[in-house]
Amino acid sequence: MRVIKRVAKALLLFLLLLCFAMSIGWQETLQDNGSVTLYLPEGKNSYDILYASEQRTTAPVAFTMWQQQEGQVIENRELNRTKRASVMTLCGDSTLALPSLPMLLPSSGRGCLVDAQTCYDLFGDLSPVGGTILLNGQSYIIIGVFEWPTAMVVRQGTSNSGETYDRITLGLPGTANKAQAADEFAMRHGLSPIAVVSMGQWTAVAGFFVRLFPLVMLIWLLFASFCFIYRKRETPVIAGLLVCGTAVATMIFWRVAGLSFSLPVELLPSRWSDFEFWATTFAQLKEQFWVLMLLPKELPQAMPMIAVLHCVAWSILAFFLFVLCKDNKLYTCRELAINAGLSLFLACAVVMMATPSPVEGTPVLFLYPIFLVWKYFWENGQF
To answer: Which residues lie closer than 8 Å to 301 by C-beta, 6 or more apart?
Structure first.
């Protein structure tokens, strides 16, 4: 019976570390390139004119115009195969709108990117890269393949094709107030976007949920530690040493967990006497949130949204598993050493396992052993 309990505890710990690692892995798939997307109610079809106008400004902003059409027929005439797919057409550098996909520049000409399943459906076991597909009577060469759950093709449009683009993605790396820079861009060119969405908003949500598990762990440790210190209040010297030890342990934990919090510049008023700023700002954020939720989810929005949902799900699972694991009491240094060593071993196995992206292993490897050591000392009155 004791062996079964130990195996169950080890399994719970392994699942806890796995969930934490998966949440970090999904967060790291989000590449915040500083981009901001303007959603236009009506499309524009003049990339060259907009580009020339922007180049005349003192600090021109790089941008990409794009649109997505559903239910387009693509063909492989050599194998006589067809399939319907969503087609994203863009003018400009594709990495502004799709930072995690292979680069598709205007100089790529008739190059395109196609999802893996569509490539398999059209080409079978043959290598799709370098293959030719037909779309709207024009041939395109596949120069990159990416994973996506639905049929999707990304291609470069031409500025003189007469196509309309109802999305404009701006490259604003290093810009502190991206919302203000996007508004200035829109005003310069007479645009009236119905929504403005930053890639940083997605990474901020994912970052919060990744930090949720270590933050809850830290709050629980601090609460238990201060309860223990309160019981020692009659010996001020010991209580003072315990407070200092708790502060040092908190700094180490904070550093290893990579905890950091900051407010975006857009959420800070220009003057503190502006008492209506917060109400106005949050009303605008609420409106933009519902506009975004109700808009069709095209590839550049769907990719970060799926990553955020995975990150949130894995983080919540890690939280619940921590609730199950946190009450396992350690009575001796031997038990502490065994459990800390086991957590390190399991963490190494988790880090080496396949995840959506390479995981930065420091928090996964060392966070739980630090938790065990801290918990052991205050539980056994040796802190």
So the answer is: 37, 197, 292, 295
Per-residue pLDDT tens digits for 98-109? 988 888 877 767
Q: Buried b vs exposed e over 51-64: b needs ≥16 C-beta within 10 Å?
A: beebeeeeeebebb
Q: What are the DSSP calls for 77-104, one per residue?
A: TTTTEEEEEEEEEEES-HHHH-TTSPP-
What is the per-residue pLDDT across 323-353, written as a single tens digit (0 to 9) for each? 888 777 777 788 888 888 888 787 777 777 6
Put simply, whether the predicted model's pTM sits higher than 0.85 gets the answer no
Using alpha carbons, list the distances in angstroms from residue 65 to 40, 127, 170, 224: 11, 30, 9, 54
**Residue whose structure tokens are 């790089």:** 62
In the numeric block, which tokens belong to residue 182?
A: 């996007």
Q: List, for residues 148-191, the tens digit of each pLDDT value.
A: 999 999 998 876 656 788 899 999 887 778 888 899 999 999 88
Q: Dig out the tokens for 371 from the structure.
A: 């938790």
Residue written as tokens 């970052």? 207
- Do the beta carbons of residue 118 and residue 85 sit within 8 Å? yes
Alpha carbons 25 and 357: distance in angstroms, whole number: 5
